[in-house]
Amino acid sequence: MFSVVIPLYNKEKYIGRAVESVLAQTYQDFELIVVDDGSTDASVSQINSIFDPRLRIIQQKNQGEGPARNAGIQVANREWIAFLDADDAWLPDHLDELSNIINKHPNAKMLSTSCAQIEDSNEKFNVKNSLNSHIREIDYFYEASIKIGIINSTSLAINKCVFLDVGGFNQFKAGADLECWARIALKYNVAISNKITCCYFRDTGGVMQSLAAKKATKPVTTLSDISPSVNMLVQQSKRDSSILHNQSIRRYINSRLFNGVKASLFKNEYLNAKSVSKLALPQLNLLYTLLFIFSYTPTFFLKAGVKLVQFLRNKKR
Is 185 in the same domain as 274? Predict the structure, then answer.
């Protein structure tokens, strides 16, 4: 049923753990495809030391995480594509829970379980779950406006026919996964389980960590500047005007704006924060109200507020 795709670039310390977590699944109907994206460390050697007929490795020149995932999708032989990042891991019942979602919501084409965030990659993960999982279909844009990581690249599976319809992962410096999820959610049903079946390790030097350390310099002047997913929604709305009238999508866009405001404030980019706030799409909710207030707050008060928050954070440590 599942083709498991792991994009790999210079993760020699972690790839063995990721692969072994797949091979240890209680649900055994899968193939495992590791796409090496031009690693320069011993990552490939680590995989070659693992012998299992379900495991195969594809090697290509370095192109990025999105193209690596696309390469895995192209050679996948199963109906569902499940993704796992090379520095993360699954619990033994991950594929089993994805199968449960498929059985309960056969019309859903993008699925996800829940993911535990673990700060220390060397920590032994011991995840406690409630006795019964809760599986449900969701309004992706509404749920993602509350928790952007409601679906992530280690917890989800997507029907292969979806990629044939909407295309694979586009190449961006950041946000390619969210852009892909949003593109799919515009056309297909989404279902999730609250059961934790995978672990995301925060200290492994992943793409998001390295990007977060860099200071953004590009000013935001239009909605399209916010993120690849928001830009995609704006472009799609030019062909279908109903998209930006959807309240969940408007809320999703405002949540991305709010995230951009927070990032700008804590990088002392106050003018950029005000510019982002002014792009908010009107809605009768707290999120829009906060963005509206930010857009008209004098810069002096924004600076004072940020300093106060930073002081309180430091005092707690």
Answer: no
pLDDT digits (tens, 9 = 90+) for 106-139: 999 999 999 998 876 565 666 666 557 899 999 9
* 222 and 198 fall within a common domain: no
Cα maximum dimension of the chain: 63
* Beta partners for residue 81, in sequence order: 3, 158
Question: Which residues in the chain belong to E strands, given as ranges?
Answer: 2-8, 30-37, 55-60, 80-83, 89-90, 108-118, 135-138, 156-159, 189-201
**Helix, strand, coil content of the chain in percent (nearest 5):** 45, 20, 35
Q: How far is CA 222 from CA 22, 210, 227, 281, in A?
A: 42, 25, 10, 12
Tell me the per-residue pLDDT of 23-60, one tens digit each, with 9 for 90 and over: 999 999 999 999 999 999 999 999 999 999 999 999 99
In this structure, the strands spanning 2-8 and 80-83 are parallel
Which residues are 116's β-sheet partners?
199
The residue among 63, 38, 47, 37 whose CA lies nearest residue 12 is 47
Instruction: Classify 110 as helix, strand or coil.
Output: strand
Range of the domain at 96: 2-208
pTM over 0.70: yes
Hey, is 150 helix, strand or coil?
helix
Q: Is the dihedral of CA 202, 67, 46, 2 positive or negative?
A: positive
